[in-house]
Every structure is written in structure tokens, then in C-alpha cells.
Amino acid sequence: MSRLVTFKLFAIPVTVQASFLLIAVLLGWTSGLGSVVTFLSWVFVVFVSIVLHELGHALVARSYGATVAIELNGFGGLTRWAVPEGELSPGQRAAVAAAGSAVGLVLGGLVWVISAVVGPFTGTLGLVVRLGIYVNVFWGLLNWLPIRPLDGGHLFSALLAKVVPQSAARVARVVFTITAAGALALAIYYRLIFVGILSAWLLLGELGLGQRSEQPAGLPTLSYDEPVAEPEDPPERMG
């Protein structure tokens, strides 16, 4: 992937891939956002919203001793994290998973409250406010779906690990496959191109996982990767 820019936020490395900008522009174009100002507003809102979403995951994971790094790519964003010693409990993993969408929903709600109290806003500012509410609420709700590796998938996996640890992997695979197939069907019915592509990729990942008994490498995510011994791009090497 082509790395567009790398910076640090709260001492956490953040890498933006060129594919992120490309997909953001394509989504804006297919949504009928015609003017340059509208495009720039859309890209700005999407960028800020996803960075804050991933930051929620990263800060909570880091509070548990994990080493973290954020990446924005063509499928949204992910947070790579690794625990130097031991592993997180199911409850801690659930907290990490919930943090991202929680930040987005709080942000969207806060923007709505400010708009209702101070607004209404018009022009470019009004557009940014409307997009801010839409992107954060939509992204937050989408991430609650029980599909690996979305936030809801990690939450569901953490619950199964706590309730039925012996059969957690098998139950999760069945549920994730059914949910991904359902999401793909709905995306096709409502002609949601991006959601359809994402759902198809996740469904193929689950079907491949069932055949190989291990998670395929490089599966895109809107949330975060599971802990690994060594991240693919260790944070200390990411600029």
C-alpha cells in the first residue's frame, strides 16, 4: 500500500494510506457530492471521525499495557495492538472493542446537541455538521454488527469467550458467516456499493477461515486487529 502521510496523536503513530483518500473521494462522488467544497468537507469529516474512532480503541488498549498504532486505509481504519506480556481478559477485549464506536456515537450526539442548541447552521458549516452526525452515527451502528472483525464481532467473541469458551470459535464462525451473508444481501438490495464490497470481503474471509481454521491475513477492518505477538508494522518503526 502507498503510505500518504504518518504522524503521531497522543504519542500514537497514525498512518494514512493513499487508498483511504481514494475511497473517501469515490464515496463522496457516488453520494452525489458535487462541488469542491462539499468534497473537501466530506473528506475532512470522514478523516476526523475515523481517526477519533480508532483513537478510542487505541487509548483503551494502551491503558491495558498494549503497544498500539493506527492506520487509515481503503476500508476505513484499524488499530494494530499487541500486549507485551500475557493477554487481555474477555472483559478488557470487549472494552477495547466498544471504545471506538462509543467515541463515534458520543461525537455524533454531541454535534447534534450543539446544532440543536446553537444552530441551525447553514452553508459549509451546516454541511460539516450534518455530515458529522451522519458519518459518526452510521459508522458507529455499522460497527456494532456481529461480524468479524468489526467492533460488534469482537464484542460477541469476547462474550462467547466468557460464557462458552470451549465452543466460542465454532459458534462465532457460524454467526459471523450468517451475519456477513445477510449484510451482503441487504447491500445488494439497497445498492450500497461500499457496504456490499466490505460485506463480500468479510464473508469470503469467514468462509476461508472455516476451511483453514485460522484467520486469513490482511482482512480489512473498520475497527482493530486482534492482539498479535508482533504487529505487522511495529509502532516504533512507523515514523
List low-confidence stretches: 211-239
* Proportion of beta-strand residues: 5-15%
**Quick one: overall form?**
globular
Strand order of the largest sheet: 1-2-3-4
The mean pLDDT is: 81
| H/E series | EEHHEEHHHHH
Q: Whole-Å distance between the termini?
A: 16 Å
Number of helices: 7
Strands, count: 4
- Sheet bearing the most strands, described? 4 strands, mixed
Q: Summarize the amount of helix as a percent range.
A: 55-70%
Number of domains: 1
Radius of gyration: 18 Å
Structural class: alpha+beta
Write up this protein.
The protein has one domain (3-237). 62% of the residues lie in helices and 11% in strands. The protein is built from 7 helices and 4 strands. It has helices at 18-30, 36-63, 90-118, 123-143, 151-163, 168-190, 193-212; strands at 3-9, 12-17, 67-73, 76-82. A 4-stranded mixed sheet has the order 1-2-3-4. α3 packs antiparallel against α5 and α6 (168-190) runs antiparallel to α7. The longest helix is centred in the middle third of the chain and has 29 residues, at 90-118. The protein is globular. The chain starts with a strand and ends in a 27-residue tail after the last helix. 36% of the residues are buried.
